[in-house]
Amino acid sequence: MKVLSIASEVFPLVKTGGLADVVGALPLAMAPLGIEMGTFLPGYPAVLDKLRKRKVVYAYPDLQGGPASIVAGSASGLNLLVLEAPHLFNRPGGPYGDATGADWPDNWRRFAAFCQAGSNIAGGAVPGYRPDLVHAHDWQAAMTLAYMRYGGVERTPKVMTVHNLAFQGQFGASIFGELGLPAEAMSVDGVEYYGGVGFLKAGLQAAWAITTVSPTYAQEIRTAEFGMGLDGLINMRAADLVGIVNGIDTEIWDPATDELLAAKFSAKSLKGRLANKRAVEERFGLDRDEGPLFTVVSRLTWQKGMDILVSLLDPLVATGARLAVLGSGDRALEGALLAAAARHRGRIGVVIGYDEGLSHLIQGGADAILVPSRFEPCGLTQLYGLRYGCVPVVARTGGLADTVIDANEAAVSAGVATGFQFAPSNGDAFAHAIRRAVAAYAAKPVWTALQKQGMKADVSWQKSAARYADLYRTLIAAGHSA
Fold this sequence. Notes:
By secondary structure, this protein is α/β, with parallel strands linked by helices. The protein folds into two domains: 2-247 and 462-481, Rossmann fold, CATH 3.40.50.2000; 273-456, 3-Layer(aba) Sandwich (Rossmann fold). 39% of the residues lie in helices and 19% in strands. It has 19 helices and 18 strands. A nine-stranded mixed beta sheet has the order 3-4-5-2-1-6-7-11-12, with helices on both faces. The chain has a six-stranded parallel beta sheet with strand order 15-14-13-16-17-18, with helices on both faces. Strands 8-10-9 form a three-stranded antiparallel beta sheet. Strand 3 and strand 4 (68-75) form a beta hairpin. Helix 5 crosses helix 6 (199-206).
């Protein structure tokens, strides 16, 4: 079975968040199930620089304003197709914006071109390759399915995965004439969305199946509270909606073999965690003491509940806990965290930015990871936390609710608890969860049991990959019988 995965980022080549981790891990997880998954990416410099065995397999004299080509190659164990279009992707900064974080004003054109090329690949443009199914991820890839729908590739099954419904790719109606779609596509059952063009909406409309990255999030986005204006369409497609929780790459994330740690450890022996804890304390300028060390590894945004965290920093320190924060995002939140670190020297440490190696060390050394998200389609940091004995303290939403078992009295007695959940996502509930965690940490046998039970949790891709494989086979069979 040949599956074409289309996405705007993939770990370890280019990453801004969990999307890249998922897209990078899926091909490796699907291979043992008899599924050959190729990945189609934009030709950012970081991708092209690492591409090996490069071969141009299709050329465009003009694609959205300049010459372009589809290049086949490999990198980091992945079979790749890459859209090399220097006028669209050869830029400094990130995948979606400049060095200041401002979105590129022509993002609609960049990803329309990317999706046009994706549709061409699906239609057999690359000699000797035609996928049995196309799997698009998030708004940047979603228009591929619309181009397929209106471009004669309708009989190829199409899956649309929503990693975060908040990011939709909405643009003004004025761009429609440059998209290369027929006039009938600018309709409510096509790409039109509230008078403009909706990239994600178009993908949801054209997909044969819609997946989200956790079962709870699949239900949440059917409500007005979490549906972000798309709940009506999603409810219309409810029969085609499925939630499949993400996994993580358990070879990269393995505390028994992780070279990024100060000391390795396993569920059988947690002794090595102390050396990692000391390394985290040193890196963040924190005091050494017997209290719990909490951490946050996150984008610093409203969605992630970071404003709630900021409001609780003084009470958190008052419990005797310390906090190490790694992340970047909203400038006001960054400033508030840095101010708190200055106010509580030795108790709060903040590193603005993202560092993959440091994130491994933090998971291996901190006692608990705080994830107070207002909504969270899946979340990966809590999965890394479980894997590394860094006990998750999470809001009861989306994938957080699906992957962490609350340490209530019954769950602790039964020996199945893996962390702490709280609801609703507000300061009072979060503060109560922090106090519960501090109390559990003081009861060492209880805390150790939480750590070891979490480390036993199956956070791999094995079960999730099997569910994707079943979905693919069902859709391909339906396509053959159509």
